[in-house]
Specification:
single chain; alpha/beta; two-stranded antiparallel sheet; about 40% helix
Length: about 260
C-alpha cells in the first residue's frame, strides 16, 4: 500500500484510457495491470451522445479512481475551464494538468502550467502537473501548493524511456517530500522499472500498453515491472564499480581433500 493525495492505493502503476483497439480490450488491460488509477480526457471522449455515456458507464464499472486530464489545452485559461468541467462530470478534485507549449514535442508550457496550477489549487483542486524534469519549475510548482509532480521521461508517445536519468535522479534527491510520478515516454517494462529504481513513487503510461500487439499482456508486464523496480529500490541496488570483484573471496574458501587410501 502507498498513499497518493491522501488515498491508499495498492498499485504504483497509473494507466491511461486512450488509443485502445476496443473498450473491451481497454478494460481487460486495466484489470491485468492491477492499476488503481485510470486517466481520462474530456477532449478524447465526448459525453454528449450515447457513445460518450457508454464510455463513462464503462469506466465507472471498473470501480477505480479516475484522474481526469486537460490534454490538448494550450493556455492556462483553457486548462482551468477543462478542469472545472472535469470536476463536475467525474465528481473528483483530482486533475492531471496539461498545458502544451509546443505541438511538435508536446512539451508543457512552464509559465502557463504554473499559472493554472496556482488558480486550480486556490479553487480546491488536487493538481497533478505534467511537467518537464526542470528542477526550478518543479520547486515553483511545489511552492504553489502542488504535492504531486509528474515529470516526463521523454516526450509523449515516443517510447524512448528515460532520456535524462540524471535530471530525474536529481529531482528525487532534491525533492524528497514530493510525490513524483514519471509520466510520458515509457515504451518498455524496463523503462518503467528503471524509473522505480530511481526512487520515483509511481509511473503513468498509456501508449506502450494501448498500442502493443497484445495490450493485455503488456499491461501485465508493466504492472510487474513497476512492482519489481520498487522492490529493488527498497532493497537497495548494488553500487557499480570499474573492476571485477569475486562473489566468493579466496580468503576463507573451504577446501576438500580427496582421500586416496
Amino acid at each position: 500500500m502507498w498513499t497518493l493525495a491522501d488515498t491508499q492505493l495498492n498499485s504504483r502503476l497509473l494507466l491511461g484510457s486512450a488509443l485502445y483497439p476496443s473498450p473491451d480490450i481497454m478494460c481487460r488491460a486495466i484489470e491485468a495491470s492491477d492499476s488503481d488509477v485510470v486517466t481520462v480526457s474530456l477532449r478524447r471522449q465526448s459525453f454528449d451522445g450515447a457513445d460518450g455515456e457508454q464510455f463513462w458507464q464503462l469506466l465507472k464499472s471498473l470501480e477505480l479512481r479516475l484522474l481526469p486530464n486537460t490534454a490538448g489545452c494550450h493556455s492556462a485559461k483553457e486548462a482551468i475551464t477543462t478542469a472545472q468541467m472535469a470536476r463536475e462530470l467525474f465528481g473528483t478534485r483530482w486533475v492531471k494538468l496539461e498545458v502544451i507549449g509546443d505541438d511538435y514535442s508536446l512539451q508543457p508550457d512552464p509559465f502557463a502550467l504554473l499559472e493554472a496550477s496556482k488558480e486550480l489549487i486556490a479553487q480546491g483542486f488536487e493538481v497533478f502537473p505534467y511537467c518537464t524534469d526542470d528542477l526550478v519549475l518543479c520547486e515553483k510548482l511545489m511552492s504553489a501548493g502542488c504535492r504531486i509532480l509528474m515529470p516526463w521521461g521523454a516526450p509523449i508517445g515516443t517510447g524512448k524511456g528515460l532520456i535524462n536519468p540524471y535530471a530525474l535522479r536529481n529531482l528525487r534527491q532534491r525533492l524528497p517530500e514530493a510525490t513524483l510520478i514519471v509520466d510520458a515516454g515509457i515504451g518498455a517494462p524496463s523503462h518503467a522499472s528503471q524509473a522505480m529504481e530511481l526512487g520515483f513513487d509511481a509511473v503513468l503510461l498509456n501508449t506502450a500498453v494501448a498500442q502493443a500487439n497484445v495490450p493485455v499482456k503488456m499491461a501485465r508486464a508493466m504492472g510487474l515491472a513497476v512492482e519489481a523496480g520498487r522492490l529493488a529500490y527498497e532493497a537497495g541496488l548494488m553500487h557499480q564499480q570499474d573492476t571485477a570483484k569475486p562473489s566468493t573471496p579466496t580468503l576463507g574458501t573451504p577446501f576438500w581433500h580427496q582421500n586416496h587410501e
